[in-house]
Write a structure and sequence with these properties.
Layout (H helix, E strand, L loop, with lengths): L4 E6 L3 H12 L3 E6 L2 H10 L4 E5 L7 H9 L10 E5 L4 H9 L4 E4 L4 H16 L9 E4 L2 E4 L4 E4 L2 E2 L4 H12 L4 E3 H7 L11 H13 L9 E4 L3 E4 L5
Parallel strand pairs: 1-2, 1-3, 3-4, 4-5
Antiparallel strand pairs: 6-7, 7-8, 8-9, 10-12, 11-12
Helix pairs in contact: 2-3, 4-8, 6-8
Length: 237
Protein backbone atom coordinates (compact mmCIF):
# COMPACT_ATOMS: atom_id res chain seq x y z
CA UNK A 1 0.00 0.00 0.00
CA UNK A 2 1.34 3.49 -0.85
CA UNK A 3 2.36 5.65 2.06
CA UNK A 4 0.20 8.75 1.60
CA UNK A 5 1.21 9.43 -1.99
CA UNK A 6 -0.11 12.82 -3.06
CA UNK A 7 -2.50 12.95 -6.01
CA UNK A 8 -4.23 15.95 -7.57
CA UNK A 9 -7.74 15.68 -8.99
CA UNK A 10 -8.86 18.50 -11.30
CA UNK A 11 -12.60 17.97 -11.52
CA UNK A 12 -15.56 20.36 -11.34
CA UNK A 13 -17.95 17.70 -9.98
CA UNK A 14 -17.43 18.11 -6.23
CA UNK A 15 -19.49 15.01 -5.35
CA UNK A 16 -17.40 12.83 -7.65
CA UNK A 17 -14.18 14.34 -6.33
CA UNK A 18 -15.22 13.68 -2.72
CA UNK A 19 -16.17 10.10 -3.55
CA UNK A 20 -12.87 9.48 -5.33
CA UNK A 21 -10.87 11.13 -2.55
CA UNK A 22 -12.55 8.97 0.08
CA UNK A 23 -12.11 5.77 -1.92
CA UNK A 24 -8.46 6.41 -2.79
CA UNK A 25 -7.79 7.49 0.78
CA UNK A 26 -8.68 3.97 1.90
CA UNK A 27 -5.82 2.75 -0.28
CA UNK A 28 -3.30 5.15 1.20
CA UNK A 29 -3.47 8.06 -1.25
CA UNK A 30 -3.98 11.70 -0.32
CA UNK A 31 -6.04 13.56 -2.92
CA UNK A 32 -6.00 17.33 -3.32
CA UNK A 33 -8.97 18.68 -5.27
CA UNK A 34 -9.20 21.62 -7.66
CA UNK A 35 -12.51 22.57 -9.23
CA UNK A 36 -11.14 24.22 -12.36
CA UNK A 37 -8.12 24.14 -14.60
CA UNK A 38 -6.32 27.25 -13.41
CA UNK A 39 -6.71 26.32 -9.75
CA UNK A 40 -5.35 22.90 -10.60
CA UNK A 41 -2.31 24.35 -12.32
CA UNK A 42 -1.66 26.68 -9.40
CA UNK A 43 -2.03 23.81 -6.92
CA UNK A 44 0.38 21.59 -8.84
CA UNK A 45 3.03 24.31 -8.92
CA UNK A 46 2.68 24.91 -5.18
CA UNK A 47 2.71 21.25 -4.21
CA UNK A 48 3.94 18.62 -6.66
CA UNK A 49 1.75 15.55 -7.07
CA UNK A 50 2.64 11.96 -7.93
CA UNK A 51 -0.18 11.94 -10.49
CA UNK A 52 -2.90 14.22 -11.83
CA UNK A 53 -6.44 12.95 -12.41
CA UNK A 54 -7.69 15.41 -15.02
CA UNK A 55 -11.27 15.83 -16.22
CA UNK A 56 -11.70 16.70 -19.89
CA UNK A 57 -14.64 19.06 -19.30
CA UNK A 58 -13.81 21.97 -16.96
CA UNK A 59 -15.55 25.34 -16.50
CA UNK A 60 -12.66 27.64 -17.38
CA UNK A 61 -10.59 25.63 -19.88
CA UNK A 62 -10.80 22.12 -21.22
CA UNK A 63 -8.64 19.32 -19.91
CA UNK A 64 -6.61 19.20 -23.12
CA UNK A 65 -5.42 22.76 -22.51
CA UNK A 66 -4.61 21.94 -18.88
CA UNK A 67 -2.65 18.90 -20.07
CA UNK A 68 -0.74 21.04 -22.56
CA UNK A 69 0.12 23.58 -19.86
CA UNK A 70 1.31 20.89 -17.45
CA UNK A 71 3.63 19.51 -20.12
CA UNK A 72 4.99 23.04 -20.59
CA UNK A 73 5.82 23.53 -16.89
CA UNK A 74 9.49 23.75 -15.87
CA UNK A 75 11.55 20.84 -14.63
CA UNK A 76 10.10 17.64 -13.26
CA UNK A 77 6.57 19.06 -13.05
CA UNK A 78 6.27 18.67 -16.82
CA UNK A 79 6.71 14.90 -16.42
CA UNK A 80 3.90 14.50 -13.88
CA UNK A 81 1.78 11.50 -14.94
CA UNK A 82 -1.70 12.46 -16.14
CA UNK A 83 -4.76 10.21 -16.12
CA UNK A 84 -7.51 11.89 -18.13
CA UNK A 85 -11.22 11.44 -17.46
CA UNK A 86 -13.73 11.92 -20.25
CA UNK A 87 -17.50 11.66 -20.30
CA UNK A 88 -17.55 11.51 -24.08
CA UNK A 89 -17.66 8.27 -26.01
CA UNK A 90 -15.86 9.51 -29.10
CA UNK A 91 -12.55 7.62 -29.49
CA UNK A 92 -11.06 10.82 -30.90
CA UNK A 93 -11.19 12.38 -27.43
CA UNK A 94 -8.81 9.83 -25.97
CA UNK A 95 -6.58 9.95 -29.05
CA UNK A 96 -6.27 13.73 -28.77
CA UNK A 97 -5.64 13.41 -25.03
CA UNK A 98 -2.78 10.99 -25.64
CA UNK A 99 -1.40 13.25 -28.34
CA UNK A 100 -1.39 16.13 -25.84
CA UNK A 101 0.69 14.05 -23.42
CA UNK A 102 -1.75 12.18 -21.18
CA UNK A 103 -0.42 8.86 -19.87
CA UNK A 104 -3.78 7.13 -19.69
CA UNK A 105 -7.50 7.79 -20.01
CA UNK A 106 -10.66 6.51 -18.34
CA UNK A 107 -14.19 7.16 -19.66
CA UNK A 108 -17.00 8.19 -17.32
CA UNK A 109 -18.85 6.65 -15.64
CA UNK A 110 -16.14 4.44 -14.17
CA UNK A 111 -15.75 1.92 -11.39
CA UNK A 112 -13.56 3.26 -8.55
CA UNK A 113 -11.66 -0.03 -8.57
CA UNK A 114 -10.71 0.50 -12.20
CA UNK A 115 -9.55 4.04 -11.45
CA UNK A 116 -7.39 2.71 -8.60
CA UNK A 117 -5.95 0.00 -10.84
CA UNK A 118 -5.06 2.49 -13.56
CA UNK A 119 -3.50 4.90 -11.08
CA UNK A 120 -1.33 2.11 -9.70
CA UNK A 121 -0.35 1.01 -13.21
CA UNK A 122 0.65 4.53 -14.29
CA UNK A 123 2.63 5.12 -11.09
CA UNK A 124 4.32 1.75 -11.45
CA UNK A 125 5.36 2.54 -15.02
CA UNK A 126 6.54 5.98 -14.00
CA UNK A 127 8.45 5.05 -10.89
CA UNK A 128 9.72 1.52 -11.31
CA UNK A 129 12.69 2.20 -13.53
CA UNK A 130 14.20 -1.22 -12.91
CA UNK A 131 11.13 -3.20 -13.90
CA UNK A 132 12.29 -3.75 -17.44
CA UNK A 133 15.98 -4.31 -17.07
CA UNK A 134 19.08 -3.88 -15.00
CA UNK A 135 19.18 -0.09 -15.21
CA UNK A 136 21.87 0.15 -17.89
CA UNK A 137 21.89 2.41 -20.92
CA UNK A 138 20.82 1.14 -24.32
CA UNK A 139 22.53 2.88 -27.23
CA UNK A 140 21.43 2.92 -30.84
CA UNK A 141 23.67 5.32 -32.73
CA UNK A 142 23.07 8.76 -31.25
CA UNK A 143 20.00 7.52 -29.35
CA UNK A 144 20.47 6.64 -25.68
CA UNK A 145 17.83 5.08 -23.43
CA UNK A 146 18.79 5.26 -19.75
CA UNK A 147 16.50 2.80 -18.00
CA UNK A 148 17.75 3.75 -14.56
CA UNK A 149 17.25 7.50 -14.91
CA UNK A 150 14.27 7.00 -17.26
CA UNK A 151 15.74 9.49 -19.70
CA UNK A 152 15.92 9.30 -23.49
CA UNK A 153 18.32 11.50 -25.43
CA UNK A 154 19.39 11.95 -29.04
CA UNK A 155 22.87 13.40 -29.61
CA UNK A 156 22.84 14.57 -25.98
CA UNK A 157 19.48 16.33 -26.25
CA UNK A 158 16.84 15.03 -23.83
CA UNK A 159 13.61 13.90 -25.50
CA UNK A 160 10.19 14.75 -24.10
CA UNK A 161 8.28 11.49 -23.54
CA UNK A 162 5.56 10.46 -21.12
CA UNK A 163 6.23 7.58 -18.76
CA UNK A 164 4.14 5.23 -20.88
CA UNK A 165 5.95 6.26 -24.06
CA UNK A 166 9.28 5.72 -22.32
CA UNK A 167 8.24 2.19 -21.39
CA UNK A 168 7.06 1.53 -24.94
CA UNK A 169 10.43 2.67 -26.27
CA UNK A 170 12.28 0.47 -23.78
CA UNK A 171 10.15 -2.50 -24.86
CA UNK A 172 11.02 -1.81 -28.51
CA UNK A 173 14.71 -1.30 -27.75
CA UNK A 174 14.94 -4.59 -25.85
CA UNK A 175 13.47 -6.32 -28.90
CA UNK A 176 15.38 -4.40 -31.58
CA UNK A 177 15.28 -6.08 -34.97
CA UNK A 178 12.12 -8.06 -34.21
CA UNK A 179 8.83 -7.30 -35.92
CA UNK A 180 6.22 -6.86 -33.19
CA UNK A 181 2.45 -6.73 -33.48
CA UNK A 182 0.54 -4.08 -31.57
CA UNK A 183 -0.67 -6.77 -29.18
CA UNK A 184 2.89 -7.91 -28.50
CA UNK A 185 4.01 -4.35 -27.82
CA UNK A 186 1.12 -3.72 -25.44
CA UNK A 187 1.73 -7.03 -23.69
CA UNK A 188 5.38 -6.08 -23.19
CA UNK A 189 4.35 -2.97 -21.26
CA UNK A 190 2.73 -4.41 -18.20
CA UNK A 191 -0.04 -2.77 -16.21
CA UNK A 192 -2.46 -1.76 -18.92
CA UNK A 193 -4.65 -3.75 -21.26
CA UNK A 194 -5.94 -2.24 -24.48
CA UNK A 195 -8.33 -3.58 -27.06
CA UNK A 196 -6.61 -4.80 -30.21
CA UNK A 197 -8.50 -2.22 -32.25
CA UNK A 198 -7.50 0.68 -30.02
CA UNK A 199 -5.55 3.25 -32.03
CA UNK A 200 -3.81 4.68 -28.98
CA UNK A 201 -0.70 2.55 -29.58
CA UNK A 202 -0.32 4.25 -32.96
CA UNK A 203 -0.76 7.65 -31.35
CA UNK A 204 2.03 6.91 -28.89
CA UNK A 205 4.30 5.64 -31.65
CA UNK A 206 3.73 8.87 -33.53
CA UNK A 207 4.72 10.92 -30.50
CA UNK A 208 7.80 8.79 -29.85
CA UNK A 209 8.85 9.24 -33.46
CA UNK A 210 8.37 12.99 -33.19
CA UNK A 211 10.73 12.97 -30.19
CA UNK A 212 13.50 10.68 -31.41
CA UNK A 213 13.45 10.78 -35.23
CA UNK A 214 15.28 13.35 -37.33
CA UNK A 215 12.24 13.34 -39.63
CA UNK A 216 9.12 11.78 -38.11
CA UNK A 217 7.54 11.54 -41.57
CA UNK A 218 10.44 9.42 -42.79
CA UNK A 219 11.33 7.40 -39.68
CA UNK A 220 14.51 5.34 -39.53
CA UNK A 221 14.38 4.18 -35.92
CA UNK A 222 10.79 2.91 -35.53
CA UNK A 223 9.61 1.37 -38.78
CA UNK A 224 6.03 0.42 -39.66
CA UNK A 225 5.47 -3.06 -41.03
CA UNK A 226 2.18 -2.79 -42.90
CA UNK A 227 -0.47 -5.18 -41.72
CA UNK A 228 1.68 -6.37 -38.82
CA UNK A 229 3.01 -3.70 -36.49
CA UNK A 230 6.40 -2.12 -35.84
CA UNK A 231 10.10 -2.94 -35.78
CA UNK A 232 12.79 -1.02 -33.92
CA UNK A 233 15.91 -0.75 -36.10
CA UNK A 234 18.93 -2.51 -34.64
CA UNK A 235 21.39 -0.33 -36.63
CA UNK A 236 20.84 3.43 -36.33
CA UNK A 237 22.77 6.62 -36.95
Amino acid sequence: MPMNQQLLMIEDDARLANMVSEYLGQSGYQVAHAGDGQTGLNTLQKQAAELVILDLMLPDMDGLEVCRRIRALPGALAQTPILMLTAKGDPMDRIIGLEMGADDYLPKPFEPRELLARIRAVLRRHGDGGAMGNGNVMRFGSLEIDRDARVVSVAGQVCDLTSYQFDLLVALGERAGRVLTRDQIMEAVRGRELEAFDRSIDVHMGRIRAAIELDAKAPKRILTVRGVGYVFARQQD
